[in-house]
Amino acid sequence: MSKVVPELRYSAEHEWVAVDSAAGSESVMTVGVSAIATEALGDIVYLDLPEAGSSITAGQSCGEVESTKSVSDLYAPVTGEITEVNPAAIADPALVNRDPYGAGWLFKVTVTEEGPLLSASEYATANGVEL
């Protein structure tokens, strides 16, 4: 698995965002945690995610990721309203470790404003990995 997916954009706090093409609108984005973060966290055992219908603000904590090593804040990479939370990831948090860029996505947001996001190249360089 590639540690950094070229088609995605990233926050400095290791969240990724992608336009949700299935939604038919560029304002709906899917959010997840990068493979770099999952490797640093270790085995993820619990996710505390925002609820559908709630609002999040870019740069602010919007949940937690608990692993066997630590509990880490999840920071919103965008501002908007949560439209969907991934029930599979809630039921099996280890899914985020196994497939962080696919089935392990966390939630979807109708975006009103983007936070500071890095290109895949910028994110890779900042984390000392190759694209």
For the largest sheet, list the strands in their spatial order: 1-2-3-9-8-5
Backbone CA Rg: 13 Å
Strand content: 35-45%
**Secondary structure tally, helices:** 4
Mean pLDDT: 94
What is the string of SSEs from the N terminus onward? EEEHEEEEEHHEH
Instruction: Tell how many strands the DSSP assignment holds.
Output: 9
| Poorly predicted regions | none
Specify the helix fraction band.
10-25%
Describe this structure in words.
With 131 residues, this protein is an alpha+beta fold. The chain has four helices and nine strands; from the N terminus they run βββαβββββααβα. The strands form two sheets. A six-stranded antiparallel β-sheet has the order 1-2-3-9-8-5. It has a three-stranded antiparallel β-sheet with strand order 4-6-7. Strand 1 and strand 2 form a beta hairpin. The protein is globular.
